[in-house]
Design goal:
The protein is built from 3 helices and no strands. With 98 residues, the chain is mostly helical.
Length: 98
């Protein structure tokens, strides 16, 4: 095989690998955004009885807004857990039995 053919095949291999990786990242990013939107809709359906207005709002939110909303929900959940733990510690230290 000629040297020029080997170089050409090497360049094509590198270009193909780059294109595959680039497309894979885009597809994974889109999939992740759709999963986030699905989870948010699921929460709206469970907590707000499937309120159509709220579901439409979720549809209209941008990806950044959805991420911010989900981060707020996570922070609230963590805060609730901390408060529950603190309440248990206070009950234990006071000797209160329920």
């Amino acid at each position: 095989m000629k040297t020029s053919t080997k170089i050409g095949l090497g360049v094509l291999t590198i270009a193909g690998t780059y294109a595959t990786i680039n497309c894979s990242e885009k597809i994974l990013g889109k999939f992740e955004r759709e999963v986030t939107r699905y989870k948010t809709k699921k929460v709206v359906k469970e907590k707000f009885n499937g309120n159509e207005k709220l579901l439409n709002i979720v549809d209209d939110l941008s990806d950044n807004e959805l991420n911010s909303l989900n981060q707020i929900v996570k922070n609230i959940k963590i805060s609730r857990e901390k408060i529950n733990d603190m309440g248990k510690k206070i009950k234990d230290s006071a000797g209160i039995r329920l």
